[in-house]
Amino acid sequence: MPTLYLLLKFVHVASVIVWLGGMFALVVFNARLARVGDMALVAAMGRQTEAFGRTVIGPAMGLTLLAGLATAGVARFSFGAPWIVWGLVGFILSIAIGVIAVQRAAGELGALAQSAPPDDPRLGALRSRLLWLNAINLLVLASVVWAMVFKPSL
Known about the structure:
Structural class: mainly alpha
């Protein structure tokens, strides 16, 4: 049992690293490129971000959830423990923020970047919205990592 637990815990932690590291890198790259003002580059990065999210971040999110649930089950942790509940709530919030709100705003930005002049105020507003949504998402996920490490019992 300890071997299975440790293997599942490793998969869980490794998938979290890919998920959060990938998200953080994309946020930084997109923010830096947005300041350059090259709309073709912004649009291309937007398409690459979407593809990376679908092929790397999405599967890492799923693996994080499955490995986390399996790890908790093997270790016989209570699924009612506050830190596990917050992990699940944070996962759902991250999906709502990242998969729904961020993708919608990114799609709007990509479409607008192809047709609007670089000084269009709507571009700045969309970039700002994306920055805030991503920052909130990363803070939610950082709080989940904190809960997983410290396991508060309230």
